[in-house]
Amino acid sequence: MTASRASLDLLYSDTEEELRSAVRALLADHCAPATVLARAESGRPHDPALWRTLASGIGAAGLLVPEKFGGAGASHREAAVVLEELGRAVAPVPYLTGCVLATEILLGCDTPEAADLLRALAAGQQVCVPALPLTQAPGAPLPQPLRDTGGGALTGTVTSVADATAADVLLVLADTGLYAVPAAGARLTGAVPLDLTRPLATVTLDGTPGTRLADPATARAAVAGALLSGAGLLASEQLGLAEWCLTETVAHVRGRHQFNRPIGSFQALKHRLARLWLDVASARAAARAAADALATASPDAPLTVAVAQAYCSGVAVRAAEECVQLHGGIGMTWEHPAHLYLKRAKSDSLALGTTGHHLGLVADFAELPAPA
């Protein structure tokens, strides 16, 4: 056993539990399922008031930002706790894209311009979103960069950019480096997403000016590191989603009666829920391992993240499917929030790499030969 594996810490600290309580209380007050559904139906899922309180009131936006840039100087473990609670509430806020991916990219740039954006991001004054497809996976070739037509005037199109409609600044990968582009200067064409709480858009730039943050090599390294962190912390969002589905389903089968007895007393349902509980418990271990490996910069982090994503994606989808099915006819209605969780789980299973992609990474890292 390597030293990094021997020191793996899967437990939650007191600080992490206090952070969880604060975020959960906020979401309970401002992000009830009926509220989320109403905003999704309106076509404007993001809640600016909720975001301001989460980002600056609680300080969640600056968790991964060092103190010298005005952040909390916390670690991926604390950010993972926030994502667990956001997944539990399918909260329509740009946290994964704006406070994990964008923060990691800006930290990787290490320039005065990037530092200025980090300060604004940590204070909750601006939302930065990377102009990358939501399906972009760590370890996969990066998309074709946009073209710099001269002086930082960028031209090109990026599809399936998550949370672009909530962004103030887009982080754009171009052939001459990474650029910060005001979202107001880009043409955003909304797509119809599977997950209504995480809107997608096509970003089109036509000679749009941007501020250069890094050279091409630095930019690509920063994006690669951000994708690894994003995939690892996405597992925590999937964990929170799965836990909500399990909890709500157990509560339903305890209270729903058939043949004058709770349907949860039937052995077949007991077995299904027991298996789901084991899956969720294992997903918690995988997600916490990924967060801890990222927080400690473990050399095993790429393997640990790939394992977490390969496992947690499937658990989240199964938990959401069981939630819909075991709620019976109620689970099939639009008014019940189960469909929001199923759609988020399905969307997350494609975000930052599919299960198949991450299984392939596990095989590569473990030096397992492919089938003949």
Describe the structure.
With 372 residues, the protein is an alpha+beta fold. It is built from 12 helices and 10 strands. The protein has helices spanning 3-6, 14-30, 33-42, 48-57, 76-88, 95-109, 112-122, 216-255, 267-295, 301-326, 338-350, 355-365; strands at residues 128-130, 147-148, 153-162, 169-174, 177-182, 187-190, 200-209, 211-214, 257-258, 261-262. It has a 4-stranded mixed beta sheet. Strands 2-3-7-6 form a 4-stranded antiparallel beta sheet, with no helix packed on it. Strand 2 (147-148) and strand 3 form a beta hairpin. Helix 5 crosses helix 8. It is globular. It starts with a helix and ends in a 7-residue tail after the last helix.
Give the radius of gyration: 21 Å
Overall 3D form: globular
**Low-pLDDT runs:** 1-5
Q: Which strand-content bin applies to the residues? A: 5-15%
Straight-line N-to-C gap: 30 Å
**Count of extended strands:** 10
Order of helices and strands: HHHHHHHEEEEEEEEHEEHHHH
- Taking strands numbered 1, 2, ... along the chain, how are they ordered across the largest sheet? 1-4-5-8
Q: Largest sheet, if any?
A: 4 strands, mixed
Oligomer: single chain
